[in-house]
Design brief:
By secondary structure, this protein is of the alpha/beta class. The protein is 46% helix and 10% strand. The strands form 2 sheets. A 12-stranded mixed beta sheet has the order 4-5-6-7-8-9-10-11-12-13-14-15. Helix 4 crosses helix 7, helix 20 runs parallel beside helix 21 and helix 22 packs parallel to helix 23.
């Protein structure tokens, strides 16, 4: 038998098989091999057209295995992507083993494709399967939307979505959201983007924020920011541990200036603001005290580069989990002590650039038992003794930035390695860190995923190779302006091809 084009050589033994059914019977004994062979068969549409018996048998087996929950989700997703990509060529051999129904309109579909598209639908199908039924009724969905849903599930596209009006698109998007058909949600949002403008952006942002429609949320933020209303809105898609722990949807509001239009915008969004940024001279204004009191979901407060009065400090919420007071000349040891005593639940603290803080301030960190992320970059006054106090005060740290703390010696990094065993992120840019201490860190900090060694002159290629060899969890390594050669980079690439190396 002639095999599909570009099939790897390890499949060559199957060329001795005479017919499609025998080929399937052999391959099905090794499911992963069958799925891989099926991918190559689909890529060679001439082969798949002339071997429809094999293609139908493979598809019926994969569909039944998915229906009976005997396939891993990764395999189901992989197969579904293949089917969507080659749907027009495979349509005649894809088994239609279940039905979906909306308002009496029933259509036969493939269960594997629907299982891959929505976990909610998968749960509904399981419930019907357990009753020996194969029809899933979508009770609230209008029948006009059913063909669009099926098109999206089977092909990954909704070609006719552009014909729907704004209200119909929002209605379809809501149904897709209720059932968690993610691709249909994305398709609806992409089409709805054309309706978002300066007049509708705030309204759309609020709705998108409530519904977690991130595409519409981002385009609304972009339009608001371009309108120059004195504020910048960000959707904060990268969830911090603080946000995850609170279970809220993040929204950042940055004041660029205090104007009536800015305050009006804030009033419309204040209930959903989780991250408030109000740095520089704005933190001295009376409006700051008003806005900081009116963010019921506030998690993060950024008052960096500011001049803050003692009166305004009284309005810093005791419930915040993230505080950025970097480069703040007003931040004395006593004021930091007051802030820590008030905000004992802080998980993330940025103190970078505050060279006025002394030994007395660092011991106060022990009163933040939930602190997992600390930034003391450019606190060049810190020596080994102060650093020892810091790491002993917060042994639970998972993220630490100490870029440009140039007075730290090997003694400090030895202390770090032996005190911060849970460390996952370390920024040691422009620090005096040696090969030996780098290996000490990787030996003790086994969960390290991110390391920045920008401009660390004492690190050698040999030390880096030894480090990378042992850092099994490492995902990102930054070695910008380190003494490394092109040959070394090639060697590193071969050793860890998936490691993100920035140099």
């Amino acid at each position: 038998m002639q095999l599909p084009a570009l099939l790897p050589s390890e499949f060559s033994s199957y060329s001795q098989i005479e017919d499609d059914q025998q080929l399937f019977d052999q391959l099905v004994q090794q499911p992963n091999t069958l799925i891989l062979f099926f991918e190559y068969a689909c890529d060679d549409e001439t082969w798949s057209d002339t071997h429809s018996i094999f293609m139908r048998a493979a598809l019926e087996w994969m569909t039944e295995e998915a229906f009976q929950d005997r396939l891993w989700n990764d395999s189901i997703q992989f197969i579904a992507q293949i089917l969507q990509h080659h749907y027009s060529a495979l349509r005649s051999v894809i088994p239609l083993d279940i039905s979906v129904e909306a308002s009496g309109n029933r259509i036969a579909v493939n269960s594997l494709l629907f299982i891959a598209s929505s976990e909610v639908f998968h749960d509904l199908l399981r419930a019907e399967r357990d009753k020996n039924q194969t029809t899933v009724i979508l009770k609230k969905m209008p029948p006009m939307f059913l063909p669009l849903l099926i098109e999206c599930v089977t092909t990954g596209n909704v070609a006719e979505a552009w014909k729907l009006g704004r209200q119909e698109l929002f209605e379809l998007l809501q149904h897709a959201t209720d059932l968690q058909f993610l691709h249909l949600m994305e398709a609806c949002q992409e089409t709805l983007k054309r309706y978002v403008n300066k007049d509708t952006a705030v309204e759309t942002l609020i709705l998108a924020h409530k519904k977690s429609w991130n595409i519409l949320k981002q385009v609304s933020c972009a339009i608001i920011n371009e309108a120059r209303w004195g504020a910048k809105i960000e959707s904060v898609l990268e969830l911090s541990e603080s946000v995850k722990s609170k279970g809220v949807t993040p929204l950042a509001f940055e004041f660029v200036e205090f104007r009536d239009v800015t305050l009006d915008l804030f009033t419309k969004l204040q209930f959903w603001v989780t991250h408030l940024i109000c740095g520089g001279t704005l933190a001295e204004r009376p409006e700051f005290r008003i806005v900081v009191r009116n963010c019921p979901q506030l998690i993060s407060l950024d008052i960096s580069h500011s001049q803050l009065s003692r009166e305004a400090l009284q309005d810093v919420p005791s419930t915040i989990l993230e505080l950025d007071v970097s480069q703040s000349p007003w931040l004395t040891d006593a004021i930091l002590k007051t802030l820590i005593a008030k905000c004992t639940g802080i998980k993330k603290l940025n103190l970078s650039g505050n060279m006025q803080l002394t030994y007395a301030a660092w011991g106060e960190l022990q009163n933040l038992p939930q602190l997992i992320a600390l930034d003391i970059s450019r606190c060049r006054q810190i020596h080994d003794e102060e650093f020892s106090l810091i790491v002993k005060a917060v042994p639970q740290l998972m993220q630490l930035s100490l870029a440009e703390c140039k007075h730290l010696t090997n003694k400090a990094f030895f202390e770090l390695a032996h005190s911060l065993s849970q460390l996952m992120v370390l920024n040691a840019a422009r620090c005096h860190l040696s090969d030996g201490l780098l290996l000490e860190i990787v030996t003790r900090c086994r969960q390290l995923q991110y390391l920045d060694l920008t401009r660390c002159p004492e690190i050698s290629e040999k030390g880096l190779l030894s480090f990378v060899r042992q850092a099994s969890q490492l995902q990102t390594l930054i070695i910008t302006r380190c003494r490394v050669s092109p040959t070394f980079m090639e060697q590193l690439q071969k050793m860890r091809p998936r490691l993100n190396v920035i140099f």
